[in-house]
Amino acid sequence: MHYTGPVYRPPPEADTPLLEVTYGCSWGKCSFCTMYHSQKFGVSPLEDVEDDLKELIRYYPKDLKKIFLVNGDAFALPARKLLEIAELIHKYFPEIECIACYASIRNIKRKSMEDLENLRKAGYNRLYIGLETAYEPTLKQMRKGYTKEDEYNELSRLKEANMDYVALLMLGVAGRGKCIESAK
Ligand code: SF4
User: Fold this and answer.
1) Where does the pLDDT of residue 122 fall: very low under 50, low under 70, confident under 90, or very high at 90 and above?
2) What is the pLDDT of residues 140-157, one digit of tens each?
3) CA-closest residue to ligand 1 atom 1
4) Does the residue 3 lie in any domain?
5) Assigned domain for 4 exists
6) What is the spatial distance between Cα 117 and Cα 110, in angstroms, rounded to a whole number?
7) Which residues line ligand 1 (CB under 6 A)?
């Protein structure tokens, strides 16, 4: 398998095969995060992705239902590229029902409604989104690169596209004395 630099996946995906389509994180500016400091962002060549799928079919059943794309925000890829990857996945695992990956609000914002609907049809149906908080001053402090309004808009568009997601929150991140504002 091609795994370049650090590899992370959410705990619920412990049994899901991990397919590298990007490495590092396309943003890399969040003030609290050191996850990919050792690895510059890059896109895996499709030939490598296909080689890895050929390897995965040796270890996973042909009727595999779910696969997880690494790394930090694989959803940063343009919709066209994500659709090509989905096609390749279905070639080797025709019964895949769910393609999961990490995604940021910025990645979603760059996709049209039509892109999101096409991606949903192609199997993208579990985005893990590190929202952290919707408390604006803390969002700014963390340099997440989006606003509370962006969060509401982009999550609404995912709902409209019927795309399942998990919003990851950092409880308490607003700090001492800010718990009520942050919780709201
Ligand atoms: S988007 Fe995620 S992986 Fe990238 S720097 Fe921020 S927290 Fe880290």
Assistant:
1) very high
2) 999 999 999 999 999 999
3) 27
4) no
5) no
6) 14
7) 25, 27-28, 30, 33, 35-36, 72-73, 104, 130
Atom 3 (ligand 1) nearest CA: 72
Closest residue to atom 5 of ligand 1, CA basis: 28
- Residue bearing tokens 């929202």: 131
Tokens of 168: 């990851």
What are the pLDDT digits (tens) for 22-70? Answer: 999 999 999 999 999 999 999 999 999 999 999 999 999 999 999 999 9
| Total count of domains within the chain | 1
Residue that the structure tokens 């059943």 belong to: 61
- Which residues form the domain of 115? 11-183
pTM value surpassing 0.85: yes
Unique residue bearing structure tokens 């991140």 = 173
Cα(132)–Cα(63) distance, rounded to whole angstroms?
35
Q: Is there a contact between 103 and 72 (Cβ–Cβ < 8 Å)?
A: no
Residue 48 lies in a domain: yes
Query: Domain with 133 in it: what CATH number?
Result: 3.20.20.70
Atom of ligand 1 nearest to the CA of 72: 3
Examine residue 1 and state whether it is found in any structural domain, yes or no: no
Residue nearest to atom 4 of ligand 1 (CA): 28
